[in-house]
# Entry
Amino acid sequence: MLKNRRSVHKSVLPGFGLTMGFTVVYLSLIVLIPLAALFLKATGMGWTEYWQLMTTQRVLESFRVTFSTSLCAALANAVFGFLVAWVLVRYSFPGKRFIDAMVDLPFALPTAASGITLSMLYSQHGWIGRWFDFRITYSQLGIFIALTFIGLPFVVRAMQPALTDIERELEEAAASLGATRWQTFWKVLFPGLLPALLTGFTMAFARAIGEYGSVIFIAGNSEIAPKLIIIKLEANEYTAATAIAVTMLVVSFFLLLVINLLQLWGTKNWNRT
Amino acid sequence: MSSKNPTDNHEPTPFPFTEQTITEPFWVRCLLIGFALVFLALFLFLPLVFMLFEAFAEGVSYYFKALSDEDAVHALSLTLFSAAVAVPINIVFGLSAAWCVAKFEFPGKSILITLIDLPFAISPVVAGLLFVLLFGLQGWFGSFLESHHLKIIYAVPGVVLATLFVTFPFVARELIPVMQSQGTEEEIAARVLGANGWQIFWRVTLPNIKWGLLYGVILCNARAMGEFGAVAVVSGSIRKTTCTLPLHIENLYNENLYSAAFAVASLLAMLAIVTLAAKTMIEMKAAKEDKVETKN
# Structure
């Protein structure tokens, strides 16, 4: 410990104590203490009560809807995000810079605004919904669309640096060895891009699970997990809300770990080539 | 496609390669570009156009009436207020976190960076719940607050707290990589020449990180003004008291006042477009300066 302290103080730059102190205090006040309070509240209920609360029909159904639609949306994002990133990095066409900037629209647009817009657009009177015989809004399909909308930038932004880093020599070598374009893509380029794609996929999935604003309007009465927390809170069922929230937090932290590992894998991959 | 397999004819492969050997055939490129553009047009642009169309569906005067409505004006002022509190606090935090992470070595640094990013991984609804469990009537400090006639949940402080939480990492996470890549050489040189801490910060560090800082501030502000889920949980959406613009949209929509809801939404859409434009400009400026620097 003493040794570490000395290595800190060896730096001639001032302000370590001040900035470190402020950072840790503010982090604790805004993030760590509230999180600790949630977990403390959760430990107060005990396993049997937790298990009972989590296995009610309503909670299980909300988790089923949340996870299955989030997974589908993340898969759709992986496909479309890959395509968009590929086109933006490797081809040139008029308006490319504008399109590139607009990819972040789902990030920048407040979720309540995108929520009501998607809900109306895909409703039976909306510009898109009217062309379909079946209902899109108030169904899992509607939730899927909203989750795909907000998840798209994650995959595109994760893929772009990886695509830019591809070395031309790699493709030239493949071509000179007689590979077709498809073989080059599938056997040479794609394996190198896989960590970035999985990172983007996991980020989109993690965001989709917790998403609220852009989904609730199009979801109607379908209960996704975040909405169920609010319903439980409004009914003053704090313990039930806490149980659902803790479960979601554990899943989020697990996904965060996966994302970090994937990014580590990605950097290692590139260092090897 | 256009090049024959080089092993078939025994001529040596020409070098350097023509574009055709390392890119897709023309028709494939056109198809992919076309598909991507159609997808983005339907999926991203159409909603934006539709929103504007709906906002003006009942005429221009209705649009401005919806925006100048008393509830809307109050919601706007609360949104501006909570952003005006949250953004500066998170700027100070971001600068301080980036300074200690990027300029010093200490054990547990990567854990600190992970903890700073934590709010991004947490659902906004859960974020709101955290503060309800702390300060709500049934929360840890609930009875204390009640006996002192203080209100945080269903009041403005709750809205500000929720905003602080969800915008917490934005500035720090933009600044940390920028400051790390810049190293400490310039600061140490300034120190050796006799500059004190504030002088180093204002004259050496700040000019180096200004684009990164601005970038973080813009994203932080956009999120602060647009946050919905976390604020919805703590605010109770009480008109003229704790209703922010995004919550006002929800209220109008639930009352079937669609055009008014879309009018207010278009205001937030404008914020989004300004944010994206500023972001792109900063990226271009920073790239240009990078180029100049590497040339010198």
About this structure: Chain A has 13 helices and no strands.
